[in-house]
Amino acid sequence: LAKTTQPISMDSYEGQEVNITCSHNNIATNDYITWYQQFPSQGPRFIIQGYKTKVTNEVASLFIPADRKSSTLSLPRVSLSDTAVYYCLVGDSGNQFYFGTGTSLTVIP
Amino acid sequence: EAGVTQFPSHSVIEKGQTVTLRCDPISGHDNLYWYRRVMGKEIKFLLHFVKESKQDESGMPNNRFLAERTGGTYSTLKVQPAELEDSGVYFCASSQAPQGPYEQYFGPGTRLTVT
Predict the structure, then answer these.
(1) Which residues make Cβ contacts (< 8 Å) with residue A16, sequence separation at least 6?
(2) Which B positions 87-106 lie with beta carbon below 8 A of chain A?
(3) Closest CB from B35, B59, B100 relative to A93
(4) Closest approach of B46 to chain A, Cα-based (Å)
(5) Nearest alpha-carbon partner for B95 in B58, B59, B48, B55
(6) How does residue B100 score in pLDDT terms, banded at 50, 70 and 90?
């Protein structure tokens, strides 16, 4: 089961782009990389998922280098409502997810 | 489409008592997962159902925990007898059949307090 390492916390001003990098050195060939967002008193919420290169959706982008040993979640122009904990998860379809400590993002006015 | 629901949202019980948590996954989702976060620690996997079968229960802490998924629909997680260290938030998640990439949809969690 691939473990992940992320910064414990980050601060950013409103309107800035935020990049959160995650290390997953022992990622397996079949593993996908998934990012979740969690607000207090709520369950984690899916943000984005990818296998390699770059994936973009309406809320974020995910950059994955060729060796797949890390990934970067990019949040464009964050707002106060983006203050949350962000988890980088690595796993094969059908398997359990490993939740690390996550990154607590605080957006400052 | 209704999301994953969990009941109750909060439960306060005394040490030694029994509590049963319920999870209703999204309709049509064969995969159901239980996770928990105990105070101040990471969210940890407990077990995984595929329909009514336990696919992986490697995360179940001990035999005081019993999970069932009758008929492959809703699931229950029973803690008997509850201990103080069982306090935390229990999350349930569901996903479609494990073919290719997929996401797990999480419920809001059940906050369990054992006093």
Answers:
(1) A77, A78
(2) 91, 93, 98-106
(3) B100
(4) 9
(5) B48
(6) very low
Look at A95 and B93 and tell me if their CB atoms are within 8 Å.
no
A97 within some domain? yes
pLDDT score of B101: 52
Looking at residue A3, what is its pLDDT? 81
Supply the CATH number for residue A26's domain: 2.60.40.10
Task: Say how many CA atoms lie within 13 Å of A101 toward its Cβ.
Answer: 10
Residue A2 lies in a domain: no
Kindly indicate the confidence band of residue A77, based on its pLDDT and cuts at 50, 70 and 90. Answer: very high
- Number of separate domains in chain A: 1
Q: CATH for B5-114?
A: 2.60.40.10
Best interface-test mutation with B: which of A6, A96, A101 has the largest number of B CBs within 10 A? A96
Domain limits of chain B? Answer: 5-114
Which domain, by its residues, includes A33? 9-103
Asked if B4 lies within 8 A of A43 by C-beta distance, the reply is yes
Q: What is the pLDDT of residues A13-49, one digit of tens each?
A: 999 999 999 999 988 888 889 999 999 889 999 999 9
Each residue's pLDDT tens digit, B13-27: 999 999 999 999 999
Dihedral through CA A63, CA A67, CA A69, CA A74, nearest 10? -10
- Type of residue at A82: D
Q: How confident is the model at residue B41 (pLDDT cuts 50, 70, 90)?
A: confident
- CA atoms of B4 and A101, how far apart (whole Å): 23
Out of A36, A94, A99, whose CB is closest to B31? A94
